[in-house]
């Protein structure tokens, strides 16, 4: 088999470029200087409140059931259905969830009597549309990504704002600016 010299040079150039970028951002890669946050990102907090208000305007009351999580909390959730009793609820280990970086929230519906509703087909405002889907539409208009749109594992309660950052980048210390607005995609 003959090795194509152009592809070899291109491959080596990419490796050198990645190495250079990592070297340039070595301070950014230092997790001691950039530990995971302990509160929701300010923009996520702001849009979470707007989401609650807009849902209420549609006759839907939601409750935020989870927001920022520590790495240890994420590991405990990941253990469910694996090494701990219960059903699998996530495929993200500690450090692999946008919750760990203050960029995600989970929600549920709340009935008039205060009961938490996990039924994604529930139509409490009786307009012929599932309230869960209505909330997801509002959330996406605000710049959240909805776990219900995921192909592999549907996570209906989950909403996240990535600000264009991958989990890999977040794990290595990259963080959105505190006043950064969400990346809204159609």
From TrEMBL:
CDD domains documented for this protein: L-Ala-D-Glu_peptidase_like
InterPro entries given in the database record: Peptidase_M15C, Zn_M74/Hedgehog-like
Any one GO molecular function term: hydrolase activity
Keyword Transcription part of the UniProt annotation: no
Keywords for this protein: Hydrolase, Membrane, Transmembrane, Transmembrane helix
Boundaries of every Peptidase M15C domain copy: 95-161
Domain of life: Bacteria
Record field: transmembrane: 6-23
Root EC class: hydrolase
E.C. code: 3.4.-.-
Pfam families per the UniProt record, alphabetical: Peptidase_M15_4
Gene3D superfamilies: 3.30.1380.10
Protein name (Swiss-Prot/TrEMBL): Peptidoglycan L-alanyl-D-glutamate endopeptidase CwlK
Organism: Aquibacillus albus
Lineage: Bacteria, Bacillati, Bacillota, Bacilli, Bacillales
């Amino acid at each position: 088999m003959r090795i194509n010299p152009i592809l070899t040079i291109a491959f080596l150039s990419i490796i050198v470029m990645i190495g250079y970028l990592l070297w340039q951002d070595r301070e950014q890669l230092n997790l001691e200087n950039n530990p995971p946050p302990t509160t929701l990102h300010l923009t996520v907090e702001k849009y979470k409140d707007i989401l609650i208000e807009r849902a209420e305007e549609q006759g839907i009351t939601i409750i935020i059931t989870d927001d920022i999580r520590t790495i240890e909390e994420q590991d405990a959730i990941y253990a469910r259905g694996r090494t701990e009793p219960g059903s699998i609820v996530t495929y993200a280990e500690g450090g692999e969830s946008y919750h760990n970086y203050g960029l995600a929230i989970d929600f549920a519906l709340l009935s008039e009597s205060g009961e938490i509703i996990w039924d994604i087909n529930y139509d409490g405002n009786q307009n012929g549309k599932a309230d869960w889907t209505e909330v997801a539409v509002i959330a996406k208009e605000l710049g959240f990504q909805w776990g219900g749109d995921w192909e592999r594992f549907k996570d209906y309660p989950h909403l996240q704002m990535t600000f264009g950052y991958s989990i890999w980048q977040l794990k290595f210390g990259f963080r959105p600016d505190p006043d950064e607005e969400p990346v809204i995609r159609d």
